[in-house]
Amino acid sequence: MSVHEEFMRRAIALATENVRSNAGGPFGAVIVKDEKVVGEGANTVTATNDSTAHAEVTAIRDACRNLNTFDLSGCVLYTSCEPCPMCWAASYWAHIGTIYYGNRAEDAARINFADAFLYEQLALPREKRVIPERELLRTEAWESFQAWQESTTKMEY
Amino acid sequence: MSVHEEFMRRAIALATENVRSNAGGPFGAVIVKDEKVVGEGANTVTATNDSTAHAEVTAIRDACRNLNTFDLSGCVLYTSCEPCPMCWAASYWAHIGTIYYGNRAEDAARINFADAFLYEQLALPREKRVIPERELLRTEAWESFQAWQESTTKMEY
Question: Which residue in chain B is spatially nearest to A136 when comparing CA positions?
Fold first, then answer.
């Protein structure tokens, strides 16, 4: 058994256990650095009343806490299902290096999860997406960006 | 001043204050239900060592906590900048009804944030995106989905 299979089996076990214990959806994830687990998570949306608590987001937060950093460069994500766009972008912002996934977004669609639909949505121009979006006070909003540009003490991420 | 402008100005103020206090990036967000603020957030990635702590995600989590639910149906998101794909998908999963934004993703690109780049990335097939993705143990991973399908006690979200 390769180390990759070992970590993926752990992610799958977290997913299945999460369903059996009624804690949440059938998703589990593991973050690995230098072949050691540095973070784990399962989907706890319903258990913790947090709609952002997908397995990957939960595992990224756990790894950030354990490593005491917002930068997971050099880490690998093993997830029992291809990340939804929220979790894919979360992986990007965390600087995850490689993603291993088990189920595909199309597989999730077969059990009525919206992952594949969300990939279609995000490829559309904003005005064609299912959540109505309206622009407001764009000129005033630039002030925040100008403050960031001018700040000499900011910490980039 | 319309109520929409009032809530957007609050989101912009959170963003600017976040920069001035060195707490994080120039992003603020407010969640409103029935014309009352039910959640607020700013970008606290660096302050809290949580790479997922964008303003919208932080505001959604705050609203979920305050309303004691994972379902923000009927809520409106006011954000000082168009949501990145992580935050757009988080809004979808939370059942946010409408999004008002100030700056556009293109504006964020002008101060070196990757939001617009991420929209381009998510429109690509998975094998062309910047994070390498590898499929592994897809058949075994289906077991978790089967457990979900067969569960008679699951809570959908």
Answer: B102
